[in-house]
Amino acid sequence: MKLRKEPFAYQWALPEALDIPPDEPRARLDFYNDSIILQMVENNVISNRMVSAQDVALAFLNEVPLTSGILPESALWWSQGRDGPEVALWQPPQVWPVAMETRPFQPPERLRIPMPGLIFICQPGRPPRIYAAKARPKSPQDVIYHAPLFNVFHNGRTCQGTHKYPEDIAEIPNSFFASFFTATADHRRRSKKYPDDLLNLWQELDGKKKYPRSDLVPLGKVMDIMQ
Predict the structure, then answer these.
(1) Half-sphere exposure of 55 (CA within 13 A, CB side)
(2) Which of 111-115, 123-127, 155-159, 184-188 comes out lowest in average pLDDT?
(3) What whole-number distance in Å separates Cα of residue 77 and Cα of residue 88?
(4) CA angle (106 as vertex; 105, 109 as ends), nearest 5
(5) 3-state secondary structure of 178
(6) What is the distance between the alpha carbons of residues 121 and 172, in angstroms, rounded to a whole number?
(7) Using one digit for the tens of pLDDT, what is the confidence trace for 65-85?
(8) 99-110: per-residue pLDDT in tens?
(9) What distances in angstroms separate CA 47 from CA 24, 29, 53, 54, 78, one per listed residue?
C-alpha cells in the first residue's frame, strides 16, 4: 500500500548553532501484538509493508560485526546471549585442587577432588554457568547433570563474590577452581549419596582419582542450556 501525503510529522531538531535544517525520518517500525509494519518514505510517498522479527534482526546485524574469533580447542558451541557472546567449554574428567573454607577466620581446607566432565558456559570477565556430563556432549539431546560443586546455584549459575574472572574465556575454568569455595550457596541435591551435605562427598573423594558418575543428579538436556 502506498500513500501520497506529507512525510512523518516528526523531525530531529538539531542545535541551531550547527546551521543545519531539521533531519526528517525515512523509515519507521510499528510493533503490534501479531505483526510488525515497516513504513518507508521516499519522494513524499509513504509505503507500508509487513516484515518479520527476523528481517528486523538481520537488518541490524548488517551493521554489527559478528564473529566468534579463534575459539579454544575445548569449545563446544558459541552463541549470542542476552548479555553478549557466550562460549561453552568442555573440561574432561580430572582432579582439581580446591580450597574450601569450612570455618570463619580459619585457613581453608586444601583438597584434591576428582570431578566428572564439566561444561562451562563463559563470557569474558564474568562468572560462568557450570554443568556436569558423563561424556563430551555430541547432541542437544544428551543428558546433563548438576555440577557437584560449591559456589554454584541450582540453575548452574555461579556466585562470583569478590573473585575477578579473566577476559580470556579459556582461563575461566582454572580461575573458577582457583577461587575459595564456601557453603553459602545452596549445594543440596548435588549428590545421590549425600543429597544434603556436599562437603561429606568432597571429603570422601579427597585424594581419589575418579568421580563416581553414578552419583550425578540429572538436571536436563544440553538443549536446555544452549538456549
Answers:
(1) 9
(2) 184-188
(3) 5
(4) 135
(5) helix
(6) 10
(7) 667 778 899 999 998 767 778
(8) 999 888 889 999
(9) 16, 12, 19, 20, 39
